[in-house]
Design brief:
This protein has a seven-stranded mixed sheet with strand order 6-5-14-17-18-13-19, with helices on both faces. A six-stranded mixed sheet has the order 8-2-1-12-21-20, with helices on one face. It has a three-stranded antiparallel sheet with strand order 3-7-4. The longest helix is centred in the last third of the chain and has 24 residues. It is globular, with a radius of gyration of 21 Å. α1 runs parallel beside α6. The chain has eleven helices and 21 strands. With about 425 residues, it is α+β, with helices and mostly antiparallel strands. The model has no long low-confidence stretch (mean pLDDT about 95). The structure holds flavin-adenine dinucleotide (FAD). Flavin-adenine dinucleotide binds next to α1, β9, β13, β19 and α6.
Length: about 425
Amino acid sequence: MTTTDVDADVIVVGAGPGGSATAYHLAKHGAQVLLLEKTEFPREKVCGDGLTPRAVKQLVDMGVDLSEDAGWLRNKGLRVIGGGMRLELPWPELAAYPGYGVTRTRMDFDDLLARRAVEAGAKLVVNTNVTGPVLDTAGRVVGVTAKTAEGEVTYRAPLVVSADGVSARFPLAMGIAKREDRPMGVAVRRYYRSAAKTNDDYLESWLELRSREGGDKLLPGYGWIFGMGDGRVNVGLGVLNSSTAYGKTNYRQLLLDWLATTPPEWGMNEEANADGPIGGAALPMGFNRTPHYTRGLLLVGDSGGMVNPFNGEGIAYAMESGAMAAEVMVQALARPEGPERERALAAYPQVLKDRFGGYYRLGGVFVKLIGNPQVMKLATRHGMPHPTLMRFVLKLLANLTDPRGGDAMDRIINGLSRVAPAV
Ligand SMILES: Cc1cc2nc3c(=O)[nH]c(=O)nc-3n(C[C@H](O)[C@H](O)[C@H](O)COP(=O)(O)OP(=O)(O)OC[C@H]3O[C@@H](n4cnc5c(N)ncnc54)[C@H](O)[C@@H]3O)c2cc1C
């Protein structure tokens, strides 16, 4: 497909899960892909490292070896702790998704996915910081400029994918700003050595965080403890922008206050067991950056604000949007430049909306509701004692239903997502 005056059919900016999935699927379809990454692998990325069956499906689609020998720790479901109760909810049995999730440090995970993209035929160039778009006279992106150790370089391609994460410098440089009407979160995490919890076969989610500082006090936010299977746990918490504590709290201190209340045998209230500092970053949710396609540029993953507002999961959505973008681009590249190609590209925001728009709209309502601690307290107290209701909640929060058929719960969730106007 490549012509001589361009470096590739598609330039992908950023080799996180979104960028690598995009590059993998494009390359598998024979497109020439240039995957530009400002860091080099392996490298850390602040994250919870938890993957639900939705993400596992994407890994299977990329041909990743998910055996335990290959270093994955599998989980069977979600353990929810709140309202004085502890409930283990297995992942639902579905036709569309596998019945297990996994954990893996982002240090390994991102490296592994970038390698899959390269194995499929993408060209990965690391230590290359993309500084901005190259535009034609009509304002359409036709390439990128980048800083490398050798100096400034320019790469050209008829299509560019922005998979540069929450910072989203590339779309910003194209004038695509963050939307303030969409939910946002912030999360912090740290690794601790914990023999007691490292091999946990459930992802653990805390609906209420407490502190002993100044008596027993309810803290804002929601917590997680994920076993990594390597002697460590990834433990962290997130706060939503619907909470009054958002932006006005020392999140790192919040984490330490909560961890001080955990059982001593877990090892998380001892500084000596910590492995590295507390890291934090924002969670851009519910399509908080649009349009997802304009003037030769497609947004994938956090760059397009695709974190699930119900549970803060972003990896599955980054990979899924990457696969969807690739499918659209392959069709577009097979058409002549001009209106015919544009028609194919205009489908990308539409397919995203069809798949996630209604669900994200519901998520926006959910975020507003649980921002009120009273609503959350009532929901926890009344919901937790009912396992069937909680199984429904798990399907809703993790976006795990069968799109066709499925059980009564699936039909209710799919029905609600369909009637909610897509955002
Ligand atoms: C504390 C925390 C916990 C989280 N926990 C979970 C979890 O347990 N499960 C889950 O699914 N999600 C979780 N998330 C969300 C998840 O981390 C993101 O949604 C996910 O990483 C998005 O993937 P991405 O590929 O879109 O972007 P990123 O993973 O951010 O990747 C972007 C890539 O682009 C590169 N880049 C950026 N700018 C440039 C540039 N100018 N030039 C070249 N390269 C560039 C970066 O170096 C990076 O490699 C968490 C987030 C946080 C902050």
